[in-house]
Specification:
Shape: globular
Structural class: alpha/beta
Largest sheet: 7 strands, mixed
Strand content: 5-15%
Order of helices and strands: HEHEEEEEHHEEHHEHEHHHEHHEHEH
Distance between the termini: 36 Å
Number of helices: 14
Helix content: 25-40%
Radius of gyration: 19 Å
Strand order of the largest sheet: 4-3-8-9-10-11-12
Length: 395
């Protein structure tokens, strides 16, 4: 992204192996059929009350958010991945990163470039769609959702984005199509009915400045779909996030949902700030004054984990910052990203062995992060996160 839980990581790539035992048990999440029937307040009015259906404050703490579903075990942003995260017990499913099609539909992909997450390169009829575009200041070559109609995208199938690191996920290549956000809302309703428990989702507006310049504004499209399904209220089970604060400000005027500003590395600037000349960096936004400004239109922040506990030159955790206390003082919740089980993504002091793709001491890392007082966490491995929460709560 300049923002998704992907550039949500300092080194930017997922890794994964050593899950054979889990894969057998995880088969229960392989279904993913799209079932079900169709179905501006001030920021301070959006704080939900406790109890069943009482808004985001009624979610368990620390909240476990399935990052792009259960992307440690299935190709991300597919119904197989979303379903498995739910079956594992995730409190919220990040479904999904929203990008538009040429004809204006919102679909769930990590990025608008889909060469790495679908089989588009194997479709000769789309060979001439390959292009180089500048996305948030970075030249990227591939195939882009905005150059395809929804009908064309539906002929593609999802594949594992990082097969070298998660070869077991390639077993599921070609099994699922690209979901639309409207299909996700139908799935949410169906799963809520089947389980007798409200299912929560956590969509994100991806590169909103880029798409607005193309005449494909995301916020209005998202608000329209949410209103259609009656999910634009302050207690609706849909939390909306973005790395661009102005996207969240725009949404604050369109819907009543809880809103979250995502925050990347301290020395970066949100892309909308770059384009409008706003000199502030993320380091400015995490100061008390910046947090107070965010709290004027949003209910939470989604910081990179390094903003909660920085690492030293060797990659080991140091002393926690004051961000948790400062954000809570401003009335904001914190849902940092992204916890993964692999050594490559764990702090150096929680790695085990020399294989970067093998699992390290994820439980130890979870415990350390939970101890800071964060309100929840995005994780590729919802099952591990839930066990870690149980340990923490009962410890």
């Amino acid at each position: 992204m300049q923002g998704t839980p992907e550039s949500r990581e300092p080194n930017g790539q997922d890794r994964g192996t050593a899950r054979r035992a889990l894969l057998g048990a995880a088969v229960l999440g392989a279904g993913g059929a799209v079932l079900g029937l169709p179905g501006a307040a001030r920021a301070d009015e959006r704080h939900g009350s406790g109890g069943h259906g009482g808004g985001y404050k009624s979610l368990p703490k620390p909240t476990v958010i399935g990052h792009r579903g259960a992307s440690g075990y299935r190709p991300e942003h597919t119904f197989g991945s979303y379903q498995l995260a739910l079956d594992m017990g995730a409190d919220v499913v990040e479904a999904g990163d929203l990008v538009p099609t040429k004809d204006g539909h919102l679909v769930c992909r990590h990025e608008p470039e889909i060469g790495g997450t679908t089989d588009v390169s194997a479709h000769p009829e789309f060979a001439d769609r390959k292009a180089t575009k500048t996305l948030d200041g970075i030249p990227i070559t591939g195939w882009f959702t905005e150059d395809f109609t929804l009908a064309e995208l539906k002929t593609l199938r999802a594949v594992e984005r990082i097969p070298a690191n998660r070869p077991h996920n390639t077993l599921y290549n070609g099994r699922w199509e690209i979901p639309t956000f409207e299909e996700v809302l139908h799935w949410q309703d169906e799963q809520t009915r089947k389980r007798g428990k409200q299912v929560w989702i956590y969509p994100e507006t991806k590169h909103p400045t880029y798409f607005r310049a193309l005449g494909l504004g995301l916020e209005e499209r998202l608000a329209k779909v949410l209103r259609k399904h009656g999910k634009d209220k302050k207690n609706s089970p849909v939390i909306i996030q973005s790395f661009e604060p102005t996207s969240i400000q725009r949404l604050d005027k369109l819907v009543d949902n809880p809103l979250v500003v995502l925050l990347s590395a301290a020395n970066t600037r949100p892309w909308d700030f770059v384009t409008t000349g706003d000199p502030r960096t993320v380091a400015d936004l995490v100061k008390p004054e910046g947090l107070k400004w965010i709290a004027s239109y949003a209910q939470g922040i989604g910081p990179t984990l390094d903003l909660v506990i920085p690492k030293d030159a060797n990659g080991a955790l140091t002393t926690p910052t004051t961000l948790v206390a400062d954000a809570h003082r401003a009335g904001l919740i914190l849902h940092p990203y992204t916890m993964r089980n692999e050594n490559a993504f764990l702090p150096a002091n929680f790695r085990q062995g020399t294989d970067p793709n093998a699992y390290g001491d994820a439980f130890g890392a979870f415990k350390t992060y939970f101890a800071t007082g964060i309100d929840g966490v995005f994780s590729d491995n919802a099952d591990t996160a839930l066990l870690a929460r149980e340990d923490f709560v009962n410890g």
